[in-house]
Amino acid sequence: DYHDRYLTDIEHDNHYITSYFRKIDARRKYRGSSALLPLRKVEMQKFVDPYRFKQGKVERKNFIGQTVKLILEMVRKIEKKNMIFE
């Protein structure tokens, strides 16, 4: 299930730039290690930064898919309601 995969697979739904990630990056930078932020343009498409206003590629794809599902469900409900009143 989702929870087990999230806990055991580092790649599963792990594409968010969290405050903890930022903290680790700041610590790396302070110690003189290479910093991970800011992300390159290619990396920005793969990862989601919740503090960024602009949606990433993954977010846009999910948003469009969910919006289409919502519209189809609304149309179905309206048609069903109209059938009841006829």
Structure, described:
This protein is an all-alpha fold and 86 residues long. It has two domains: 1-53, no CATH class; 55-86. 64% of the residues lie in helices and 0% in strands. The chain is built from four helices and no strands. It has helices at residues 2-8, 19-31, 41-46, 57-85. It is elongated, with a radius of gyration of 20 Å. The mean pLDDT is 85.
Subunit organisation of the chains: single chain
Question: Between the first and last Cα atoms, what is the distance in angstroms?
Answer: 44 Å
The number of helical elements comes to 4
The overall pLDDT average reads 85
Blueprint of the fold:
Layout: H1 2-8, H2 19-31, H3 41-46, H4 57-85
Please sum up the structure shown.
This protein has 86 residues and is mainly alpha-helical.
Task: List the keywords.
single chain, 86 residues, mainly alpha, transmembrane helix
